[in-house]
Structures are given as C-alpha cells and as structure tokens.
Specification:
Largest sheet: 6 strands, mixed
Strand content: 15-25%
Order of helices and strands: EEEHEEEHHHHEHEHEEHH
Shape: globular
Strand order of the largest sheet: 6-7-8-3-9-10
Distance between the termini: 42 Å
C-alpha cells in the first residue's frame, strides 16, 4: 500500500531580488513499511524535499499525498529526526524523550509508559536518569530516535542522522536505527550523501540531479531484507548497486561525497 506520494512537486526560494528553483517536478512514492533513500549531490535540494514532506514548506506546484489524502488535509503523523541528536544537555534522557508530548500538552501516563517501554526495549532504561553528556554518541542517537518514536509517527524522516558520528560508530548506529525502525514497523525516508549507507539501509533509492532537483532514476534494492545493514554490505550484489548509482551521478557530473572503495 502506498503511504506517501509526490506528484510533480516544485519549490522555489525567493529573495528580494531573485527566485531560485530548488525542486523541479519531483515524483516518487513510498510504500507502507519501506525504507526509502534520497541521494544526490550537495546542495541539490534533498533537505528541501524532506522539509516539504514534513510540512515545513508547501509546494509551489504539484501535490504531496499522505495516506490517500492531500498532506495538508491528512491526519497522519510525521516524525523528523535531524542531523544532530539535539538533546537538551540540562534534561535527562527520559525528559528529552518526552519533549514532544510535553510541548504539545499531551504528556500523560500513556506516552510516559511508551517512552519507558522503548527505552527498556532498546537498552537505555538504565540511562533514563542520565544526562546526554554521560552517553556515547550512538546512545544519544538512539535516544533521539526514541524521542521521535514516542509520538508514534506514521512515517519517519531522517536528515543525514549519522553524519556527526565517526565511521565506526556510524556503522553501529546505522544497524541500530534500521533494526529499531523495522521492529517498530515504521515507514522511513532518509536523506544521505553516502551511497554505501543508502544501499545498506534502503529498500529503494531515489537519485536526484543537481539543483534544481529532479529524479534521475529510482532504484529498487534487492538484497537480503532480513539482514542488518552491515551484513548487507557483504552481499554479492552490493558492489553492483554502488557502481550503478556512482556511474549515474558521475555521468551527470553530479558525484556524491562517497569515495569508490579501493580493491583489496
């Protein structure tokens, strides 16, 4: 079942003297339970598309359909996980996780119980009364994801959520986030510069051109769906997907930041 669909979406930024077209006739869909990646060169409009999906911006033209209704009319909930964890240092992990319900005036026994269950389920219950500075980078990122999940969103939007982590931590947290999202049966869209990361995480990848962004190609990733992202990197077909995406971007002079790995 299609949960989210963009149809010929366009968006421009306006200043006093000029108009900059950021997104040009972008169309793609996201099925329920899918993990979809959006990849393209720096400054191409990836985060703009995420902001359009989150309802922060409204399309200049085209439509965004969420759960069968126009996004502006839909009651479906969207959760946004930014690049950095943005945990408040003066609040405990438990208090940070409950920030959303608190801001909306909906902090109650039900979401407190949900927060407690998620913290226990994903190995953070012993750190609920700790402060962010007392946690590792990976644990902080897990806390940020749980903060988003407490609101029980229908779809999760992840804006380069691993970019602030060192390489080793990034691999581990990537596995953690994928496992949690799949276990919670959530639909997710991730923006990334990293081809390897997208191929290891995603069921489908939308490749964007340089600005103004339009869809170059949408690629279905047919790797072991029960495997973790780290295990998927070892799959026989993994390098083929990497090379296909790299070549597509290279042919358009639109390389991402990922480097081609050296042969061993």
């Amino acid at each position: 079942m299609t949960l989210l669909e963009l149809k010929n979406v366009c968006f421009s930024y306006h200043s006093k003297d000029a108009e900059t077209v950021a997104v040009d006739n972008v169309s793609f869909s996201v099925d329920e339970g899918e993990f979809v990646g959006i990849i393209g060169p720096s400054g191409c409009g990836k985060t703009t598309i995420l902001n359009l999906l989150a309802g922060i911006y409204a399309p200049a033209s085209g439509t965004i359909i969420l759960n069968g209704k126009s996004a502006s009319e839909s009651t479906s909930k969207i959760g946004l996980m930014p690049q950095r964890d943005q945990l408040f240092p003066w609040r405990t992990i438990e208090s940070n996780v409950l920030l959303g319900p608190e801001l909306l005036g909906r902090k109650n026994k039900a979401n407190k119980k949900r927060a407690s269950l998620l913290l226990r389920k994903y190995g953070l219950s012993d750190f609920a009364k700790k402060y962010p500075s007392e946690l590792s980078g990976g644990m902080r990122q897990r806390s940020a994801l749980i903060r988003t999940l407490v609101m029980d969103p229908d779809i999760l939007l992840l804006d380069e959520p691993f970019s602030a982590l060192d390489f080793q931590t990034r691999i581990v947290v990537c596995d953690d986030v994928h496992r949690i999202i799949k276990q919670e049966k959530k639909t997710a869209v991730i923006v990334s510069h990293d081809i390897n990361e997208c191929v290891s995480l995603c069921d489908k990848i939308v490749i964007l051109s340089r600005r103004p962004a339009h869809v170059l190609e949408t690629i279905e990733i047919d790797l072991n769906k029960s495997a973790s992202p780290l295990q998927r990197r070892e799959c026989r077909d993994f390098p083929g997907y990497f090379k296909r995406i790299w070549k597509l971007l290279e042919d358009k002079n639109e390389r991402c930041t990922t480097k081609i790995p050296e042969k061993t």
